[in-house]
Amino acid sequence: MKSLVGPLIKLIIFAVVTVFATAVLGFAVANGGAGGGTDFKAVFTDATQVAPGDDVRIAGVRVGQVSGVKIVDRDKAEVAFSVDRGELPAGVRIAIKLRNLTGQRYLSLEKGPGDTADTIGGGTTIGLSQTTEAINLTELFNGFRPLFQQLTADDVNKLSAEIIKVFQGESGTISELVRDTASLTNTIADRDQVIGQLIDNLNVVLKNLNEHDDQFTQLLTNTEKFVTGLANQKESVGSAITSLSNLTAVTASILQPTRPAIQGSIAALNDLGQTVVERQDEIKQTLTTLPIKLQKIGRAATFGSWFQFYLCGLDVTAGNGQSNLLTQPLIPLPDINHVLYTSAATRCWANEDPP
């Protein structure tokens, strides 16, 4: 039987190396330090999101870490931290700066006024006159919100990082930020006229709303009452909708058999319309003279249930009125083509002119 000593030793060595590597990795991820160092405290008016384990840096190089944060004097924050050196300049300035866009912070130690030979030792508390809180991301980015709304996600991330660096004094200048911003806002500038027109139109709408404020308020009030009434009568409304659905179904079943006849009537109506259009002059003339003719016909029936006519003249004409075959030479009677009677009454005058 083979000895298990060799594999067991290898397994133990592997386990030790794995645990050690895991510990080192966890230590690095947790921003852990080797411990020790010199402890200091600093008082800030605002230490939002500063947490134990955050870096302490000098010129961007990590020299320590934050060990704790607590409230002092009811409205101030005291941050305890340690550094890997025994002393700090007496005029040192400590600023809370943004580590990334997710809001993580770190303490930045910077050279302050005064002689660097003057130092402070461990346990010293640095006052408000030498500390600076982090910039307010909410207020900062709210000012750039109209710009961010017009940019892509990558452009927003790039511009945000540059803004933070500039305002923290880490790199770049205001002129570079403005130049980058100008390059990112070309699209907005191209749409300036459209945006201006939109704002003008919006101003007109708001002005009209302001001028009719009472009516608009009344409209909203009435709408609220209407909606409330519908809500209170929801059962009745639901029943009415159901009945309307049934009515629609019944109407469809009634119209279905008559659909061919209706289609034929519509087609005939189209032909009638075309005929009316083609003979509109004649129809117009008929409608114009019809009242006059009806008035004259009405006069004939004004005395009773019969028509009464006044005879203005009587002519007898055969053929074209020129035939000599219809004359009566032997009997002293008028020719067929002869006017038998003509009245001289005023009502018989044409155009009210005497004959």
TrEMBL record:
Residues 37-112 form the Mce/MlaD domain. The keyword Transmembrane applies. It holds the Pfam family MlaD. The chain crosses the membrane at residues 12-30. Residues 119-299 form the Mammalian cell entry C-terminal domain. InterPro entries: Mce, Mce/MlaD, Mce_C, MlaD_Phospholipid_Transporter. It comes from the Bacteria. The keyword Membrane applies. Keywords: Membrane, Transmembrane, Transmembrane helix. This is MlaD family protein. The lineage of its organism: Bacteria, Bacillati, Actinomycetota, Actinomycetes, Mycobacteriales.
